[in-house]
C-alpha cells in the first residue's frame, strides 16, 4: 500500500512538472512554428480528418499536404500519426494541440526515465529529480522549440532500455520486452529505432563475449526470437516500404553532405548547454567514472562505455567527414546520438548517486536546486521563443523552404487559434519532398519542383474527398495542356473525365505530377490508391500480433 502511494505521488509530481513547463504557452497565448512544424501538422491533420470522416486512406494524403495524394504517414510511423491525429481532432485549435502534445511529451519523457531508474533500483530521492531534469534537456525540447520528431523517440527511449538491465544483471534478453521496445519505437520514429538498436548492440557486445559457450548460444537464440517477434509487430511498416519503394524511385529525406558541421561541438552546441547545468552532470559523470571505474558494478560500467561511444559519435571526435557520402548519411545529423547519450548519462549519474552512501543532505539540496533551476531556465527559454510570435513580421521560428500565403500576418496568426485547422495549413506552406516518386535523372532541386508544381499550383482547382477518393475539379476556358497538383505513384489510379490516365500515354514531371490535356468546360480528376489485396491481412496480422504480445507482455513484465 505504501509503495503504491509513493508511486502515485511520484507520478503526480511528474504531472505537475509537465503542466508547469507549458505555462509559458498559456501566459503568452502564442505558438512556436519551428522548422518541422508545418510538415508534421499536415500529416497529423490528414489522419485527424480521416478519423473524423471515417474515410480512411492508409497510403496517400487526401486531406493534408494540399490534398496532393503524396505518401508520408505510411512510411513515417503510421500508428503514431493516427494517435497524434486523434489528439489534433480532440483539440479545438492548433494552439491547444501544441500545448497538449508538449504536456504529453514532457510527462511521457519523465515517466519513461523514472521507470528505467526504478528498474535499476535507484531511489525516488534521485530518480524523481533526474526524471524531471530529463524533461528540460534538449532531447525533449527539440519538439517544443523546433518540432523535431526525434523528441518523441527520446521520450520513449528510456523505458525501451529496461530489457538491457536484465541482460546485464541476469545474462538474459527477454524476447517479448525487447521486441516490444524496438517495435514500439519503430512505429513512432524509424531513426530513433535505429539509435535504440545501436544501444542494444553496444550493451549486447559488452556482455556477450565474456560468457560461456552455453550462455552465448542462449543469448543468440533470444536475439533471434526477439527479431522474429519484432518483425511481426512491424509487419505493416515492412510491407509499406516494400510496396512503395519496390515500385517507385522514392525521394529519401534530406541527405546532409556536411554531417561534420552538425555535431554538439560544431553548429549544434545547444544540445550540450540546454539546460546549462547539463554540463555539470557531464562533469560529475566523467569525474566519478575515472575515480570509481574499478569499483563500479557491471551495469554502471556498460552504461558508461555505451554513453562514451554515443557522445563520441555526437561530436567531432568521430571523423564524420569521411562518412558524409556513405550509407550512414541517413543519420543526417550526428547530434542525434546525443539523445541516447543523455538517457545513459542520467542512468549512470543515478547509479553513481545511489551507490554513494555518503551523500550529505547539503549535496542532495544541490540536486534539488539544479532541478528547479533547469525547470526555470526551460520555462524562460520557451518564453523567449514564444515572444517571436508577437513580432509583426518574421514570427516563424523556421522559414527555410517556407512561404506565407497571405499579406495579413494577423489573419495568419489567428488561424492557429481557430477551430478550422485547415486555414493555418493554407496560409503557411512548406516545401518538403520526402517520399515523393522522382525522376532520379532530373537534377533540379526537388524542393523547388514541389514548390512550383504543388504549392504554387492550387488556385484554379477545387478538391474534395468522398468514399476514400480524392476529387479534383476545375473549369477549362479552352483545350490546353495543364499541370495538375497531384502526385502519382505506381499504384495511384487517376481517372480524368471518366478516362484512366496511363503512365505510358501521359507526360509526368520530375516529381510525377501529371501533365494532361484539359477539355473546354468542367473537368474532373478522380484519384485513389489501388493497394494490393495483401494490405488488410498485413494490418490484421500486425494488430493481432500486438494483441497477443500484450497478453504475454503483461505476464513477463512482472516476472522478475
Automatic annotation (TrEMBL):
The keyword Transmembrane helix applies. The chain crosses the membrane at residues 12-33, 95-117, 149-168, 188-209, 221-244, 264-286, 298-318, 330-349, 361-380, 533-553. Keywords: Membrane, Transmembrane, Transmembrane helix. The keyword Cell membrane does not apply. It comes from the Bacteria. This is Cell division protein.
Amino acid at each position: 500500500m505504501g509503495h503504491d502511494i509513493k508511486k502515485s505521488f511520484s507520478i503526480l509530481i511528474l504531472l505537475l512538472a509537465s503542466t508547469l513547463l507549458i505555462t509559458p504557452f498559456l501566459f503568452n497565448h502564442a505558438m512556436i512554428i519551428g522548422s518541422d512544424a508545418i510538415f508534421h501538422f499536415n500529416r497529423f491533420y490528414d489522419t485527424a480528418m480521416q478519423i473524423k470522416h471515417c474515410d480512411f486512406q492508409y497510403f496517400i494524403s487526401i486531406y493534408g499536404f494540399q490534398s496532393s495524394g503524396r505518401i508520408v504517414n505510411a512510411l513515417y510511423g503510421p500508428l503514431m500519426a493516427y494517435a497524434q491525429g486523434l489528439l489534433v481532432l480532440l483539440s479545438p485549435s492548433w494552439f491547444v494541440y501544441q500545448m497538449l502534445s508538449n504536456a504529453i511529451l514532457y510527462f511521457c519523457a519523465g515517466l519513461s526515465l523514472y521507470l528505467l531508474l526504478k528498474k535499476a533500483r535507484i531511489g525516488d530521492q534521485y530518480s524523481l529529480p533526474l526524471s524531471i531534469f530529463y524533461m528540460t534537456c534538449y532531447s525533449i525540447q527539440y519538439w517544443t522549440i523546433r518540432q523535431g520528431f526525434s523528441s518523441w523517440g527520446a521520450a520513449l527511449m528510456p523505458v525501451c532500455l529496461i530489457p538491457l538491465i536484465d541482460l546485464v544483471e541476469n545474462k538474459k534478453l527477454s524476447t517479448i520486452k525487447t521486441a516490444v521496445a524496438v517495435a514500439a519505437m519503430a512505429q513512432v520514429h524509424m531513426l530513433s529505432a535505429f539509435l535504440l538498436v545501436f544501444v542494444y548492440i553496444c550493451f549486447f557486445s559488452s556482455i556477450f563475449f565474456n560468457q560461456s559457450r552455453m550462455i552465448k548460444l542462449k543469448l543468440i537464440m533470444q536475439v533471434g526470437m526477439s527479431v522474429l517477434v519484432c518483425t511481426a509487430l512491424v509487419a505493416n511498416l515492412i510491407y509499406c516500404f516494400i510496396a512503395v519503394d519496390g515500385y517507385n524511385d522514392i525521394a529519401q529525406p534530406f541527405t546532409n553532405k556536411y554531417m561534420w558541421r552538425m555535431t554538439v561541438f560544431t553548429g549544434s552546441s545547444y544540445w550540450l548547454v540546454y539546460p546549462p547545468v547539463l554540463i555539470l552532470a557531464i562533469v560529475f559523470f566523467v569525474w566519478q567514472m575515472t575515480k570509481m571505474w574499478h569499483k563500479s558494478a557491471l551495469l554502471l560500467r556498460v552504461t558508461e562505455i555505451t554513453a562514451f561511444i554515443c557522445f563520441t559519435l555526437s561530436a567531432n571526435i568521430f571523423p564524420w567527414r569521411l562518412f558524409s557520402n556513405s550509407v550512414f548519411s541517413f543519420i543526417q545529423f550526428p547530434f542525434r546520438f546525443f539523445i541516447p547519450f543523455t538517457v545513459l548519462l542520467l542512468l549512470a549519474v543515478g547509479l553513481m548517486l545511489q551507490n554513494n552512501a555518503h551523500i550529505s543532505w547539503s549535496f542532495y539540496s544541490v540536486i534539488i536546486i539544479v532541478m528547479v533551476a533547469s525547470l526555470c531556465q526551460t520555462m524562460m527559454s520557451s518564453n523567449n521563443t514564444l515572444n517571436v510570435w508577437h513580432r509583426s513580421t518574421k514570427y516563424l521560428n523556421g522559414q527555410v523552404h517556407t512561404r506565407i500565403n497571405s499579406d495579413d500576418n494577423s489573419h495568419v496568426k489567428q488561424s492557429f487559434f481557430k477551430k478550422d485547422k485547415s486555414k493555418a495549413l493554407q496560409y503557411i506552406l512548406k516545401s518538403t519532398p520526402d517520399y515523393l516518386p522522382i525522376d532520379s535523372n532530373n537534377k533540379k532541386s526537388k524542393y523547388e519542383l514541389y514548390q512550383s508544381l504543388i504549392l504554387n499550383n492550387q488556385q484554379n482547382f477545387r478538391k474534395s474527398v468522398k468514399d476514400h477518393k480524392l476529387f479534383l475539379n476545375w473549369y477549362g476556358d479552352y483545350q490546353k495542356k495543364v499541370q495538375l497538383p497531384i502526385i502519382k505513384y505506381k499504384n495511384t489510379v487517376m481517372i480524368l473525365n471518366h478516362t484512366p490516365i496511363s503512365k505510358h500515354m501521359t507526360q509526368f514531371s520530375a516529381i510525377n505530377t501529371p501533365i494532361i490535356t484539359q477539355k473546354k468546360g468542367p473537368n474532373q480528376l478522380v484519384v485513389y490508391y489501388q493497394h494490393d489485396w495483401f494490405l488488410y491481412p498485413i494490418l490484421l496480422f500486425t494488430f493481432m500480433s500486438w494483441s497477443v504480445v500484450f497478453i504475454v507482455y503483461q505476464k513477463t513484465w512482472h516476472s522478475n
